[in-house]
Design goal:
This protein has 171 residues and is mostly beta strands. The protein has helices at 132-135, 151-156; strands at residues 3-5, 12-13, 26-28, 35-36, 49-51, 58-59, 72-74, 81-82, 94-97, 103-104, 117-120, 126-127, 143-146, 167-169. Helix 2 (151-156) links the parallel strand 13 (143-146) and strand 14 (167-169). The chain contains two helices and 14 strands; from the N terminus they run ββββββββββββαβαβ. The strands form four sheets. Strands 1-3-5-7 form a four-stranded parallel sheet, with no helix packed on it.
Length: 171
Amino acid sequence: LTSVTIDNSVTSIGDGAFAGCLSFTNIVIPNSVAYIGKGAFINCQNLESIILPNSLTVLESQTFDGCSSLKKVRLSETTKQIDAYAFFGTAIEEITIPKTVRNFHIGTFYNCTNLKTVTIKSSQIQANRNDYYNHFGNCPLNVIYVPFEALEYYKTTSPWSNYSSLYQALY
Protein backbone atom coordinates (compact mmCIF):
# COMPACT_ATOMS: atom_id res chain seq x y z
CA LEU A 1 0.00 0.00 0.00
CA THR A 2 1.76 3.17 -1.21
CA SER A 3 -1.18 5.52 -1.64
CA VAL A 4 -4.05 6.25 0.72
CA THR A 5 -7.28 8.00 -0.25
CA ILE A 6 -9.51 8.95 2.63
CA ASP A 7 -13.22 8.55 1.99
CA ASN A 8 -15.41 11.66 1.57
CA SER A 9 -17.53 10.59 4.54
CA VAL A 10 -14.59 11.14 6.94
CA THR A 11 -14.67 14.48 8.80
CA SER A 12 -11.67 14.09 11.10
CA ILE A 13 -8.40 12.20 11.42
CA GLY A 14 -7.55 11.39 15.04
CA ASP A 15 -4.38 12.05 17.00
CA GLY A 16 -1.63 9.70 15.80
CA ALA A 17 -3.98 7.97 13.35
CA PHE A 18 -1.25 7.13 10.82
CA ALA A 19 1.76 7.54 13.13
CA GLY A 20 4.75 5.53 11.97
CA CYS A 21 3.12 4.17 8.79
CA LEU A 22 6.11 3.53 6.58
CA SER A 23 4.49 2.07 3.47
CA PHE A 24 2.65 4.97 1.88
CA THR A 25 4.18 7.81 -0.12
CA ASN A 26 1.03 9.75 -0.91
CA ILE A 27 -2.20 10.54 0.88
CA VAL A 28 -5.31 12.21 -0.50
CA ILE A 29 -7.43 14.00 2.09
CA PRO A 30 -10.88 15.17 0.95
CA ASN A 31 -12.42 18.55 1.79
CA SER A 32 -14.81 16.78 4.15
CA VAL A 33 -11.94 16.52 6.67
CA ALA A 34 -12.07 19.57 8.96
CA TYR A 35 -9.72 18.29 11.66
CA ILE A 36 -6.40 16.44 11.59
CA GLY A 37 -5.19 15.46 15.05
CA LYS A 38 -1.86 15.99 16.75
CA GLY A 39 0.86 13.78 15.33
CA ALA A 40 -1.59 12.24 12.86
CA PHE A 41 1.22 11.47 10.40
CA ILE A 42 4.22 11.64 12.73
CA ASN A 43 7.20 9.58 11.51
CA CYS A 44 5.59 8.52 8.23
CA GLN A 45 9.10 8.48 6.81
CA ASN A 46 8.18 7.65 3.21
CA LEU A 47 5.38 10.18 2.78
CA GLU A 48 6.48 12.47 -0.07
CA SER A 49 3.62 14.88 -0.75
CA ILE A 50 0.37 16.13 0.71
CA ILE A 51 -2.36 18.54 -0.30
CA LEU A 52 -4.27 19.71 2.74
CA PRO A 53 -8.05 20.13 2.42
CA ASN A 54 -9.69 23.54 2.16
CA SER A 55 -11.81 22.68 5.19
CA LEU A 56 -8.76 22.65 7.49
CA THR A 57 -8.15 25.83 9.52
CA VAL A 58 -5.67 24.62 12.16
CA LEU A 59 -2.67 22.41 11.55
CA GLU A 60 -2.16 20.70 14.90
CA SER A 61 1.21 20.15 16.58
CA GLN A 62 3.57 17.55 15.17
CA THR A 63 1.20 16.64 12.34
CA PHE A 64 4.06 15.77 9.97
CA ASP A 65 6.94 15.70 12.47
CA GLY A 66 9.61 13.25 11.32
CA CYS A 67 8.18 12.74 7.82
CA SER A 68 11.71 12.87 6.46
CA SER A 69 10.75 12.30 2.80
CA LEU A 70 7.98 14.92 2.74
CA LYS A 71 9.05 17.39 0.03
CA LYS A 72 5.80 18.89 -1.23
CA VAL A 73 3.09 20.43 0.90
CA ARG A 74 0.23 22.61 -0.20
CA LEU A 75 -1.40 24.39 2.71
CA SER A 76 -5.08 25.22 2.51
CA GLU A 77 -6.07 28.81 1.72
CA THR A 78 -8.23 28.62 4.86
CA THR A 79 -5.39 27.73 7.26
CA LYS A 80 -5.31 30.19 10.17
CA GLN A 81 -2.84 28.56 12.54
CA ILE A 82 0.16 26.25 12.33
CA ASP A 83 0.97 24.66 15.67
CA ALA A 84 4.25 23.58 17.24
CA TYR A 85 6.62 21.40 15.24
CA ALA A 86 3.98 20.71 12.56
CA PHE A 87 6.67 20.13 9.90
CA PHE A 88 9.69 19.39 12.10
CA GLY A 89 12.38 17.43 10.24
CA THR A 90 10.64 17.21 6.87
CA ALA A 91 12.38 17.47 3.48
CA ILE A 92 10.34 20.49 2.34
CA GLU A 93 12.32 22.65 -0.09
CA GLU A 94 9.86 25.52 -0.37
CA ILE A 95 6.61 26.47 1.30
CA THR A 96 3.90 29.06 0.72
CA ILE A 97 2.13 30.33 3.81
CA PRO A 98 -1.38 31.48 2.84
CA LYS A 99 -2.58 35.01 3.61
CA THR A 100 -5.11 33.55 6.06
CA VAL A 101 -2.41 32.32 8.51
CA ARG A 102 -2.32 34.51 11.62
CA ASN A 103 -0.42 32.33 14.14
CA PHE A 104 2.82 30.35 14.08
CA HIS A 105 3.90 28.29 17.05
CA ILE A 106 7.37 27.19 18.16
CA GLY A 107 9.45 25.07 15.80
CA THR A 108 6.95 25.07 12.92
CA PHE A 109 9.59 24.28 10.29
CA TYR A 110 12.52 23.53 12.59
CA ASN A 111 15.19 21.20 11.18
CA CYS A 112 13.82 21.26 7.63
CA THR A 113 17.32 20.98 6.24
CA ASN A 114 16.23 21.41 2.59
CA LEU A 115 14.01 24.47 3.13
CA LYS A 116 15.44 27.32 1.07
CA THR A 117 12.45 29.42 -0.01
CA VAL A 118 9.51 30.62 2.05
CA THR A 119 6.67 32.71 0.65
CA ILE A 120 4.51 34.39 3.27
CA LYS A 121 1.33 35.86 1.79
CA SER A 122 0.03 37.08 5.15
CA SER A 123 0.70 40.71 5.98
CA GLN A 124 1.08 39.89 9.66
CA ILE A 125 1.68 36.63 11.51
CA GLN A 126 1.86 36.38 15.28
CA ALA A 127 5.00 34.35 16.01
CA ASN A 128 4.16 32.90 19.40
CA ARG A 129 6.58 32.67 22.32
CA ASN A 130 8.96 35.24 20.82
CA ASP A 131 11.42 32.64 19.58
CA TYR A 132 11.22 33.00 15.84
CA TYR A 133 14.65 31.53 15.28
CA ASN A 134 13.15 28.19 16.21
CA HIS A 135 10.42 28.41 13.58
CA PHE A 136 13.01 28.13 10.82
CA GLY A 137 15.91 26.92 12.97
CA ASN A 138 18.46 24.74 11.17
CA CYS A 139 16.97 25.61 7.76
CA PRO A 140 19.30 26.82 4.98
CA LEU A 141 16.97 29.66 3.94
CA ASN A 142 17.97 31.80 0.96
CA VAL A 143 14.91 34.05 0.74
CA ILE A 144 11.63 34.84 2.47
CA TYR A 145 9.09 36.54 0.22
CA VAL A 146 6.50 38.76 1.93
CA PRO A 147 3.90 41.21 0.60
CA PHE A 148 5.46 44.58 -0.32
CA GLU A 149 3.27 46.43 2.18
CA ALA A 150 4.45 44.07 4.95
CA LEU A 151 8.22 44.33 4.37
CA GLU A 152 8.67 46.88 7.15
CA TYR A 153 6.61 44.79 9.59
CA TYR A 154 8.67 41.63 9.05
CA LYS A 155 12.02 43.44 9.01
CA THR A 156 11.40 45.38 12.23
CA THR A 157 9.01 43.34 14.37
CA SER A 158 10.49 40.90 16.84
CA PRO A 159 10.91 38.00 16.49
CA TRP A 160 10.53 38.15 12.66
CA SER A 161 13.33 40.71 12.45
CA ASN A 162 15.87 37.93 13.09
CA TYR A 163 15.73 37.22 9.34
CA SER A 164 15.57 40.82 8.10
CA SER A 165 18.31 40.26 5.50
CA LEU A 166 16.31 37.48 3.77
CA TYR A 167 13.10 39.39 3.04
CA GLN A 168 12.13 40.34 -0.48
CA ALA A 169 8.90 41.86 -1.75
CA LEU A 170 6.45 39.33 -3.10
CA TYR A 171 4.62 41.87 -5.28
